[in-house]
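Message: A physicist's question: would you kindly supply an amino acid chain plus fold tokens?
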Amino acid sequence: MFIAGFPAGAWGTNCYLVAPAAGEECVIVDPGHEAADGVEELVREHRLKPVAVVLTHGHIDHVASVVPVCGARNIPAWIHPDDRYMMADPGRALGRSLGQQLMGSITVGEPDDLRELTDGTVLDLAGLQLTVDHAPGHTQGSVTFRTPAAGDVPPVLFSGDLLFAGSIGRTDLPGGDHARILESLARVCLPLPDETVVLAGHGDQTSIGRERAANPYLRQVAGALDAPAAPRRGM
């Protein structure tokens, strides 16, 4: 499997292009603020053909470039229905003060073909199998995408703002819920094998094994540690 990524825009949101190999069809994960040029650069460099966009949640830092990226190639985007409203009204998802600060300079909307994700669905896109897990807590419609192990290639989890290296997503914005994000961590992340590569919405690559051992939130939900709160990330 081929994965290329880069941190985009003011919030350094990770955008990923995923394909069976260079030179083949690909899926774009979370083209956020000012991501369109970076997507085009990777497409040219690796001779990729985008066929779909998939979104881990609806916050503006993850979806701001969906319309131009989809429109350039007439491809669909996928989002959970609980976060779909954010495409047309991103300020509502951030609260009054933060939304008013940001929305004056950023215009978004729905792409022409916006489809809805369902928990447990396996998306067959670009020769890949992406399993969708609804993982609310950061937002009501947060999801993750899993790819299976294949030979020597370990499974991969695109965790969005559910799980980061050493931390988890914030829950203090509209739709956030700390108890639900802990439940999502337990249900979605803990059952995965240690070798699962975690590609998060912000920050560095990690693994389930590393987070199981060192992430205070994952350790807490595993019952291994009643941990003090560490700083949380994401918009």
Confidence is low (pLDDT under 50) at residues 96-104. The first strand starts at residue 2 and ends at 8.
